Amino acid sequence: MSLFHSTVSRRDFMKAIGLVGAGIGSASLAAPIFHDVDELISSQKSIQRRPWYVKERDLYNPTVEVDWEMTPNRYDPRFSGQAAYVRAMYYGKDRVLTCQAKGAAENAKRMAAGQSGFTVRDQALTLVRKDVERSWTGAKGVTIAKTPQERGEPKWTGTPEEASRMLNAAMRFFGGALFGYGELDQRMRTKVVNSHSRGNVWQNTEMYIDKSNWTDAMTNPIVYEDVDLGYSTPTKLVIPLKNMYWICADFPGGKHQYQAAPSLLANGRGPHDNLRVLFYPSFSYFMRYLGYQTLGTMQDGWDAVPDNSTAILGGIAEENRQGVLSLTPEMALAHSSWTLLTDLPVAPTKPIDAGIFRFCQRCGKCAETCPAGTIPMGDPSWEAPPVDGKENIMHHLGRKSYFGNGALCWTYIYEAGHGCKQCIGNCSFMVGSGAMVHELVKGAAAATGLFNGFFYSMSKSFDYGLYNPEDWWDQSLPIMGFDSTIVSYDGGYRK
């Protein structure tokens, strides 16, 4: 079979798959259809606008097949692949205790040799950013917004649809990109909400390797109580039994930083961590001023709801082969999601179908890239494969998906010292937002899987993916490393 090389022009590429000309080929299958002006106008007033090829599905029916009857009750994230106990279970306590020192030694060698991506300026870019004090009930340590009761005013009220549109506008202003909403109903409470916070069980110490040392103060149980306001104690996080709702906020990451992997520079989380620092106090005070509570810290391991679940169920993203992150049509894997709970009634958003999960089943580029071999090849499965002959306890089952080896992934990350990120940077969806061909290809993939194998081969032929991290310093990239206009449909950004 002949290979396609990058000498093929983008126009020839578009011609080859029938995407040149209006309504030609598979692209026309995904084009939106409007029967009159009223339909067109009302389409602009949806809770959240997405690319033209993205379709909505029914609630609780994402593109990954889910058997809700088979789904176990609340997952315990203390047994994820990040946990020191789990990594020691599969790879031995000694390896866990020494992995960070090994990674630090590797980085010292690279920096001493002046290796690209490990210079002083790369290191400086990774420095810890200032954050606000966080709690289960909102930001602390800065000016607190007064509640309507404290101001002697009524709380804001509106329909759930009005609330969701209002929150979209406010959260975009605070730094968020995409948003999902839903009711914290019985299915969410019993199947999706975590049983505990993960806490710091990822730390590579004797204390966390031995789970008999764990206490409720270290990994708070998440419990339901008949109270009006959620609260926390040193030993528990409390969610009210009354009607509650979830809000998933998604933030863009530094796509070009991720593509500089593996290196210290490839900390694509930097931009969305910066946005999260701005967003968290702004949003919690906004909600407080309106008269509603928010529960959650927007910190890794400390919140009640697994963010991939709400991102997928709320229509922000789809399941994918890589599995650590969800995958959005706009930002691919270069993003992060965080979920907060509230008593403000919101209109639910539905799962989407952008052809992403179907494409991943024909692709496998992330699995080919993974240096530790932690991402599975082949087809999705209902079962998590054993790890070196031992039961795989790292996953919340109940869906037909890909179950990677998170314990080995994190062991490799620690021992390598550079944070890896190669699967993210090399994803076939990690392409630019400026060339029209990319949107047309995504539209074709959303409409049919016929071209997916071809698109995968072309992503390799055009050499999309990782590049020399030294080149990053000479590029003229967007502010904070991401294109904020990819989620903008008003204000002249689509004209």
Structural summary, described in words:
This protein is an alpha+beta fold and 495 residues long. The protein contains 18 helices and 11 strands. The chain has helices spanning 10-16, 37-43, 84-91, 93-112, 120-124, 148-151, 160-174, 186-192, 206-209, 255-258, 269-290, 307-313, 356-362, 365-369, 406-416, 422-425, 436-447, 452-461; strands at residues 55-56, 65-66, 178-183, 222-225, 231-233, 236-240, 245-252, 294-295, 335-342, 352-353, 399-400. The strands form 4 sheets. The chain has a 4-stranded antiparallel beta sheet, sandwiched between helices. The chain has a 3-stranded mixed beta sheet with strand order 4-6-5, with no helix packed on it. A hairpin with a 2-residue loop joins strand 5 (231-233) and strand 6 (236-240). The longest helix has 22 residues, at 269-290. The protein starts with 9 loop residues before the first helix and ends in a 34-residue tail after the last helix. Residues 1-8 and 13-44 have low confidence and may be disordered.
What is the strand and helix layout of this fold?
Blueprint: H1 10-16, H2 37-43, E1 55-56, E2 65-66, H3 84-91, H4 93-112, H5 120-124, H6 148-151, H7 160-174, E3 178-183, H8 186-192, H9 206-209, E4 222-225, E5 231-233, E6 236-240, E7 245-252, H10 255-258, H11 269-290, E8 294-295, H12 307-313, E9 335-342, E10 352-353, H13 356-362, H14 365-369, E11 399-400, H15 406-416, H16 422-425, H17 436-447, H18 452-461
Helix pairs in contact: 3-4, 3-15, 4-15
InterPro entries: 4Fe4S_Fe-S-bd, 4Fe4S_Fe_S_CS, RDH, RDH_dom, TAT_signal, TAT_signal_bac_arc
Protein name: Reductive dehalogenase
Cofactor: corrinoid
